[in-house]
Specification:
The protein contains twelve helices and 17 strands. With about 425 residues, the chain is an alpha/beta fold. The protein folds into three domains: about 100 residues, Rossmann fold, CATH 3.40.50; about 230 residues, Alpha-Beta Horseshoe (pyruvate-formate lyase- activating enzyme), CATH 3.80.30; about 60 residues, OB fold (Dihydrolipoamide Acetyltransferase, E2P). Strand 11, helix 11 and strand 12 form a beta-alpha-beta unit. Helix 10 runs parallel beside helix 11 and helix 11 runs parallel beside helix 12. The longest helix is centred in the last third of the chain and has 24 residues. The two termini are about 40 Å apart. Bound molecules: iron/sulfur cluster (SF4). Iron/sulfur cluster binds next to helix 5.
Length: about 425
């Protein structure tokens, strides 16, 4: 399995592998030992599509028997034109079609002992944390995004099914669940019958009873998000919100077809901080969106100064095939996008550095991710794996293992990371 793309794609890969392992297939660590290769592709940006096509080419030359799935699978012609030798192409979430393609390429050997589902799902992340996907698709129509077209409208998994998977993961030793979807705050709003106006609140409350870290990703800034924060104040879920604001100027947001306005977002942020002052806020932004003027960009920088987010990612706008934003007038020249990106990142770095240095001297709980001879790589509640920073411990590591929760006193801060010692 070659798994490309975002955590949502990773969850799809895990599901496919779990099903295949349940049928008795083994997973090969390299091309040479595999009877076939599944490439789970990403099709979000043109650069990701190019990377996916390259990965398919590599799998073909190294192994020769390749099944393609994932987001780029929604454009089968593009794949077969570039690589006519692929065995099959299936689209995102077409689990059954991928399994059929594998059955055809490598017929399963019947084995009554292996015909049961394994106790523990196959996980591509370290055992102590796991992604948990709660819905597919999205009902928004952001101008720069083709995900609703590729992944369809919002379809939420039933709460009992999500909870069953969460409980199994916790029983298997998972200490942190990363809740993902395209639009986490919209969870359940697609159900015809629902007990409450915002089923995400009920789900977060239920997940909060499991006694592990619960981290919410991709939370669209709806007003009811404010009601999630008391669960953070009560330590039921992590005081962490990953909210893609994308921009702050109302005109840019309008052109992006995102209803949230920058000023409103500042009010919400201040309300969240009123409930849980140390809430960690992560967000992503796009600079150089078509028509973005210097004044609009400056509004974004000023907004960032006020919002003082903890973690920030920034993308230079890129046309994506099929996106409505491609047809907007006044595309921003690449050198202007670059300049804005650097200015934005400089400000974000200064804010991050200042916020982290304020943590020096504090005691924090951390989850240990990795331990080698002279360094333990850990994360605080404010750090999601892979996208945020780390806290490093470089002394008295004996006895530490991945998955441990320990208390640390922070003794040094950098631009994005912290250092500390065990207490
Ligand atoms: S909310 Fe996210 S997934 Fe949905 S259209 Fe907007 S950017 Fe795309």
């Amino acid at each position: 399995m070659v798994s490309l793309g975002c955590p949502k794609a990773l969850v799809d890969s895990e599901r496919i592998l779990t099903r295949l392992r349940a049928e008795g297939y083994a997973i090969s660590p390299d091309y040479a030992g595999a009877d076939a290769v599944i490439v789970n592709t990403c099709g979000f940006l043109d650069s990701a599509k190019a990377e996916s096509l390259e990965a398919i080419g590599e799998a073909l030359s190294e192994n020769g028997r390749v099944i393609v799935t994932g987001c780029l699978g929604a454009e089968p012609d593009r794949i077969t034109e570039a690589h006519p030798a692929v065995l099959a192409v299936t689209g995102p979430h077409q689990y059954e079609a991928v399994l059929d393609a594998v059955h055809e390429a490598v017929p399963p050997k019947p084995d009554p002992f292996l015909d049961l589902l394994p106790e523990q799902a196959v996980s591509l992340t370290p055992r102590h944390y796991s992604y948990l996907k709660i819905s597919e698709g999205c009902n928004h129509k952001c101008g720069f995004c083709v995900i609703p077209r590729m992944r369809g409208r919002l379809a939420s998994r039933p709460t009992h099914e999500v909870m069953r998977e969460a409980e199994r993961l916790v029983e298997a030793g998972v200490k942190e669940l990363l809740i993902i979807s395209q639009d986490t705050s919209a969870y359940g709003t697609d159900w015809k019958k629902r007990g409450s106006k915002a089923p995400i609140l009920d789900l977060a409350r239920d997940l909060g009873t499991l006694g592990v870290w619960i981290r919410l990703h991709y939370v669209y800034p709806y007003p009811h998000v404010r009601e999630l924060v008391p669960l953070m104040a009560d330590e039921k879920i992590l005081p962490y919100l990953d909210i893609p604001f994308q921009h702050a100027h109302p005109d840019t947001l309008r052109r992006m077809a995102r209803p949230a306005a920058g000023a409103r977002a500042l009010e919400e942020i201040s309300a969240w901080r009123g409930i849980r002052p140390d809430i960690a806020l992560r967000s992503t932004f796009i600079v150089g969106y078509p028509g973005e003027t210097e004044e609009e960009f400056q509004t974004l920088l000023d907004w960032l100064d006020e919002a003082r987010l903890d973690r920030v990612g920034c993308f230079r706008y890129e046309d994506v095939e099929g996106a409505r934003s491609n047809h907007l007038p006044d595309h921003v020249p690449p050198e202007v996008k670059d300049d804005r990106w650097h200015r934005f990142m400089e400000k974000a770095r200064d804010i991050s550095e200042a916020k982290l240095s304020a943590k020096v001297g504090r005691r924090v709980e951390v989850l240990v991710d990795e331990v080698d001879q002279d360094l333990a790589t850990c994360r605080t509640m404010a750090d999601a794996p892979e996208i945020d920073g780390n806290l490093f411990i470089d002394e008295n590591l004996e006895g530490l293992s991945p998955g441990d929760l320990v208390t640390v006193e922070v003794d040094e801060a950098g631009e994005y990371d912290l250092w500390g010692r065990l207490v």
